[in-house]
Predict the structure.
Amino acid sequence: MDVIKLLELIQTHQQWVYGLLLAYTLAKTGPLPLVAGYVSGTGALDFGLVIAACSVGTIAGSNIRFFVGSLLSSRLFRWSPKAAPWIALGAVGVDRFGFWLLPLYRFSKGTFTLVGLGAGISMNHRRFVVLDAIGAALWVAAMVGVGRGLWLLGLQVKPEWAAYFGLSLMSCGLLATVVLGRRLKKFLNPYALAALERYRHQPA
């Protein structure tokens, strides 16, 4: 299937694409919104609806995780002994750095569930909603906006260079996540271990 036929298919079934975007962003913070932003530049998708679907999905996903962490925290530590240290790490991270972490955690691969559950354990919901909404707006605007920008860039240069630019951005983000994530984990690990013992002894 060539690109033109694929775009025609997307435009014909765009309501399903918006649903897919919502489900995808509810589950994770991967690169699909960037692709959707790029496709919206061709007119096959509506730019505003792409923003709306991604925003609703990612905010719903983070709040679901918050309430799971809030309501089931003691059970999570008993049911998932392998995941428990990571959940405790997320809770301690939010407790100590929530003001900075919540607006930015979607940009770090693999932290959506970890931070969402941790926030439910260590933060009140009103504060979480405000900081998380700021983070959702930043992430959606950046991802969809970069995708749209790559399409605009592709009009002026060879399309493969636009793809190289996108891959470079993703590679830099992944490298920053690995380097900063390791340092943050090393710093927080003693606090997380202490918190883990405390959480495990909470009443169910």
Notes: The mean pLDDT is 81. The radius of gyration is 19 Å. The first helix runs from residue 3 to 12. Residues 9 and 44 are 9 Å apart (CA to CA).
